[in-house]
Amino acid sequence: MAGIRKKHLDRREWYTDSQRDFACLYHRDGDFRGGIGLITFTGLQEPETVDTPDGPLCIADNGYEWLELLPEGGHYALTAMFRDGRLFQQYIDITLRNEVRENGDGAFYDLLLDVVIREDGTLRVADTDELEEALSAGSITREEYELARKTADEVVKRCGADQAAERKLLAYRALFGNRWESGEKST
Question: What's the confidence (pLDDT) of residue 1?
């Protein structure tokens, strides 16, 4: 049965150091305060594909980058996925709480519900069935359930109204150096 799971900004639960490079920093500006990480996939043996309502989608392969934003005091963790320097998906985990260290590294407690923003800007809330099952099974409390639903609604409203979001994500990614502007490409 699904319940609240701790996940790390570097995604060590899924990928080893030999499969990816990871860098992080603490960042504060007018829009964001918290940890920002960049995962660059370098040693995957095969691409990772997930099923979506529109069919299979490759979310990780060598050269792909995941920009991770973990806001202090927030109830979400955002993963912006880049392929050949282009943003192709945003995946937002709704969280019970986030832990951010001074160096920007951190972890979050996943509340099962997710918001997905496709490359064309369409949004959808995912895993509502997992959230409902966790509540029914007693794996989460009614308060945690309500927090997940409320936060997902806020994220959808904010993301739907934020036309400058992609520019902000590109600026955060540039904090780590921008190999795409220098002409370097993935293989």
Answer: 53
